[in-house]
Structure prediction request, 113 residues.
Amino acid sequence: MTQSDFERVYKAVRLIPPGKVASYGQVARWLGWPRGARTVGWALRALRDSDVIDVPWYRVINAQGRISLVGDEGPRIQQKLLEAEGVVFDDTGRIDLKIYGWSGPVVPWWEEI
DNA sequence: GCCCTGACTGCTA
DNA sequence: TTAGCAGCCAGGG
Prediction:
C-alpha cells in the first residue's frame, strides 16, 4: 500500500456521478483488488483525517446498500448528502442498488490517467 | 514479525 | 430479511 494506491482509490470515488452510489467491493474491483474492500474502507477512513475534501466518500456504501459508518455524525451526514443528490433511502434505511448503483467506468480509466 | 482492529463480502442457517 | 462465521488486506502498537 503506497500513497499512489490511496490516490487511485480517491480517483475512482471521484468518478462516481452525483446521484449514484457504489460499494466498497465494487471500487476495489475497479482498482484490481478483488478482495480489497476493507482496504478501500481504510483509505476512505484515512480521508476523513486528511485535508482532502474533494472526494465524495459518501457515495460509497457496503454491498447491501447500507451505510457502514458507526457513530452519530457520520451516518447522518452521509444520508443527508445522498438525499440532497436525489438518492432515496427506504423504510429500513437502505438504498436500492438496482436503481442508484453505479456500474462503474465504461472505459479502463486507470490505464489512461 | 506477531497480534488486534476495521467505513467489507459472500455463504449458510 | 437478519445473524453468525470465516476469509481478506493493510496499518499501528
Notes: The two ends of chain A are 19 Å apart (CA to CA). Chain A has one domain: 3-102. The mean pLDDT of chain A is 86. Residues 54 and 96 of chain A are 25 Å apart (CA to CA).
